[in-house]
Amino acid sequence: MSKSDCPPQRQTKAPNGISRCLSCNICCGGSSPSPAEKRRMANYRPSSWDYNMLQSLGTGDESRLGLKHNFQDDIISALNRILPHQYLSCENDTVESLHFVALKFRLLRQHGFDVSTGLFENFMDENGKFKAKISEDVRGMLSLYEASQLGLEGEIVLDEAKASLAPHLTHALKLPAVQPLAERITHALEVPFHRRMRRLEQRWTIETYGAGSDSNQTLLQLAKLDFNSVQSVHQEELRYLTRWWIGLRLSDKLSFARDRLMESFFWSVGMVPEPEYGRSRKALTKVASFVTVLDDVFDVYGTLDELELFTLAVERCVNICYISF
């Protein structure tokens, strides 16, 4: 911005040839950069997403189903009923029920309930180690391995179980009888369940669950309806954000910066996928898109003098915002 950009009657002269716009209280450079000044360019690849296509995404009939996504209250209620009786069946548990016990432990831990590793005492020897014969139950080992990922600091039993079960499960992949579980085992060994992106995990589970001969078709159909219903909400949000981004024209005016609206939205879905948190996803996407552009302004394009003035302007705007509150 040059001095001519400020109204003459509102300019004041500051030291070092810098003029001040009193109307906005922002420092403006006394002279424009030389046209011959070299700029750094990162040569970022253009956005791979067609914004016209994103805006044309259809909601489909699934948006009319009115499927409620949030069953959290029912889940917590069921786990509250399980919690007081978590140790009652220990005396009767056998190796075949290791899957059930490990699943119960994981679900309780996953939802923040205080559950002890004593739940596994029937599967441990007198030295506090898991019995060797649990290696005969591949499904139980898989469930126990997934449960061990939620171990707390100092729970040596779960740490040792996680370390010892990984090679056992890897070896089990070579057995013909284990092939129905092979994909699940490989998936569990790659990344723990609670560290995966929930939407991608739901899609993967739908595909693998449907391939099983013992799958509950009613539950599978509900999962598909739920996935499509939530996806339609996300698509509508993406259309809104695309219109907002195109209207700003930042990708046209600042061609040196990365155009990453879609990636920013995908990141927000990874954080809060539930349909009722649409406002959070929109806000996160906008912030991430702006931060990406600002990062390129500072790291790639701006000169030191420009960045100092720009930082000063931003700081003053922030202060004004605080004063207004």
Write the layout of secondary structure elements.
Layout: E1 11-13, E2 19-21, E3 26-28, H1 51-55, H2 72-82, H3 98-110, H4 138-148, H5 156-172, H6 179-190, H7 198-211, H8 217-248, H9 250-253, H10 261-271, H11 278-301, H12 304-324
Antiparallel strand pairs: 1-2, 2-3
**Strand arrangement, major sheet:** 1-2-3
Principal-axes shape call: elongated
| Helical content (DSSP H or I, runs of 4+) | 40-55%
The top-level CATH class of one domain is Mainly Alpha
| Corresponding CATH superfamily of one domain | Terpene synthase, N-terminal domain
End-to-end separation: 29 Å
User: What is the number of helical segments per DSSP (H or I, 4+ residues)?
Assistant: 12
Gyration radius (Cα, Å) is: 29 Å
Mean pLDDT: 77
Number of strands: 3
Share in β-strands: under 5%
Structural class: mainly alpha
How many strands, which pairing sense, and closed or not: the largest β-sheet? 3 strands, antiparallel
Could you list the spans in which at least 5 consecutive residues all have pLDDT below 50?
A: 1-31, 49-70, 92-96
InterPro entries: Terpene_synth_N, Terpene_synthase-like, Terpene_synthase_metal-bd
Keywords: Magnesium
Pfam family, one: Terpene_synth_C
GO molecular function, one term: magnesium ion binding
Short description:
This protein has 325 residues and is mainly alpha-helical. The protein has helices at 51-55, 72-82, 98-110, 138-148, 156-172, 179-190, 198-211, 217-248, 250-253, 261-271, 278-301, 304-324, and strands at 11-13, 19-21, 26-28.
